[in-house]
Amino acid sequence: MIIDKHRAEAGARRISEAALLHWAFFGGAIGTFAASRLVRHKTRKQPFAMQMMTLLVLELILLALWVLGLLGPLIAAALA
């Protein structure tokens, strides 16, 4: 996110929204969200902001389930 912001300011080639969302999907939603707020980048752009918020909520739910020790049993039950 920060790299894309710098590229935008420099008029250089940008990182696609799809690529940013893919990185966020594979475990980086918390960091991507924090970076977007830190540098104020893509905070109002829709539908990107809503998709990013959805990934963030999903990641936080999974993190909470893992911390509470509930994620393992859910995965085991789903695979049984």
Level of helix content? over 70%
Structural class: mainly alpha
Strand content: under 5%
Large-scale geometry: elongated
Oligomer: single chain
- What's the SSE pattern? HHHH
Mean pLDDT: 86
InterPro entries: DUF1294 (IPR010718)
Organism: Sphingopyxis bauzanensis
Keywords: Membrane, Transmembrane, Transmembrane helix
Protein name: Cold-shock protein
Question: If you had to describe this structure to a student in words, what would you say it looks like?
Answer:
- The chain is mainly α and 80 residues long.
- The protein has one domain (2-79).
- 76% of the residues lie in helices and 0% in strands.
- It has four helices and no strands.
- The chain has helices at residues 2-10, 17-39, 48-67, 71-79.
Topology:
Blueprint: H1 2-10, H2 17-39, H3 48-67, H4 71-79
Transmembrane segments: 20-39, 60-79
Pfam families: DUF1294
Keywords: Membrane, Transmembrane, Transmembrane helix
